[in-house]
Design brief:
- The chain is of the alpha/beta class.
- The protein contains 7 helices and 23 strands.
- The strands form 6 sheets. An 8-stranded mixed sheet has the order 10-11-13-12-16-17-20-21, sandwiched between helices. Strands 2-9-8-4-5-7 form a 6-stranded mixed sheet. The chain has a 3-stranded antiparallel sheet with strand order 1-3-6, with no helix packed on it.
- The radius of gyration is 23 Å and the shape is globular.
- The N and C termini lie far apart (47 Å).
- It comes from Clupea harengus (Atlantic herring).
- Belongs to the C/M/P thioester hydrolase family.
Amino acid sequence: MAGKEPCPLIVVRPSRCIVDEKFLVLVQNLPPGLAVTVHALIHSEDDDFWEAFGHYISDDRGCVNVAKDASIGGSYDGVEPMGLLWSMKPIPGSRPGLRLRKKEVHTPLVVNISVYQGHMNERFKDTRALACAVAERWYMAPGVQRVGITTNGLKGTLFLPPGAGPFPGLLDLWGGGGGLVEYRSALLASHGYVSLALDYMTPKTSGNGTQHVGNDYFEAAFRLLQEHPQVCGDRIAMLGLSFGTSVALGMAVYSPVIKPKCLVSVSGSHVMPVNGSLSDVFAEIKKNAHNTRHDEENRIIWRDLLLPIPDDPSKKVDVGRIQCPVLLLVGEDDQNWPASESAEDMRQMMEKAGNSHLLTIASYPGTGHLIEPPYSPHIRASNFMVAQARTKVIVLWGGQTVPHSKAQEDAWQKTLVFLEDHLYGTKHRCPRPQN
């Protein structure tokens, strides 16, 4: 019809991509100078809703470009191309202690993006949107294969990049919460690594009660990667988060089988009884349970369980014997684990031993314990299942939203560059597959 104004439109590019890719959100066909709210909503697999929103004024062409225009209010301020994701919080009235984590990695994280007239902070569900769009964000790139692993008593999931390979391998160890967490391994496979997400914290059940896995469990997992036909057996890294770092460092130093090409530590520590099993480690930590603190909201702070960093060499991994490059990613506001103090002690130990040239530390102010892949919402505190007692508590992880989110993006890029340098590289026998 002649003279009819075009309807408002949201364009998301790309509308389907990997979760560590940026997207462009563009609103068009608005009246110039209109106050609008751009809103993002995720319906999680736990049936919770997460949202973020920014307040904008359309330009003289009736457009809002989230990548270039400044938000003047909402859940984030300023020019923040990915603020619609990293500033997400549970909607008002949600259950306490939530954490947004992808469980079914073979399906996308679906982000519903809408634009509303006016600067809104609530009642989005009850308000009609001017325009809507949907973005799919994937952990598994097209062609990545997901294979369940149950051989040799192992429990894990193997992710294979598309193509015949061979590819470098990676053993992915999460922290003390237990369970099988797959999304980081799926994302690493999307970047060309055969990644094994390993469940190692769930105690084995026997006639005599429960017992934790021994060192042979991790050695079996490492061998599985070494012997896989699509893996370069001499190009295998280890990635540990939190308690997973303690395991990775211990295995790298003391195991006659596990000889990683490089090692990435996220929010970890080298403090643990070096000659014991996992059960011995937890027994040692339990001795320091009296050091547990709570904040003003009664959230648990566990960082003091390993403090002060011991001088006794039997209480910490002898990182002076490390023979591979190590990347430490440290949040300086980590309230769960003494990552900063541990990193400094590791630096001193390696300097004294003459292998500090193998150590790289990336330390981030205002950053907490949960350093996730980029654009993931910052979670300052959340529910946590204590694997030993099978009881739920709310743990304070730390961090402030803006610096923590910036750190996640930088830390992930540093991780990818580190792995590329030490597992691919121009002189390595694992050439990067051609797309």
